[in-house]
Amino acid sequence: MSGAEQAEQQPVEQQPVGIDELLERVRAGYRRIGAHEAYGAAQAGEALLVDIRYAALRERDGVIPGALVIERNELEWRLDPQGSHKTPEATGHDLQVVVICNEGYASSLAAVSLHQLGLRRATDLIGGFQAWKAAGLPVTP
Question: For 105-122, how does the pLDDT look when each residue is reduced to its tens digit (9 = 90+)?
């Protein structure tokens, strides 16, 4: 293999970024939504709310009625419309998915991952479940 061929195969090293910068970068690629907008879209049947919080947080704080619970480590497998492990709600790439974590950080990274699967309308809830609850929107114990 020539030197030029070896150089072409070498991965390009990227400068490390901190999580705050990474969040800023990924969030620039889509529009996030607030609690009342998410509630309205879900009530109108225009959006699928997906709660990615782990069980202890759901047990402590409750759940959003009608939200699909998919823990973060299963999200891509369950929402990929082409996947063999998809949930029945994963009806197509045009589905609007609103990812909800506890405070709106992990959900941003999850939304970008869904974009990479072709779910171009995926977004996340600003402030996460805590913002939903603070807005006085429905929560079931």
Answer: 999 999 999 999 999 999
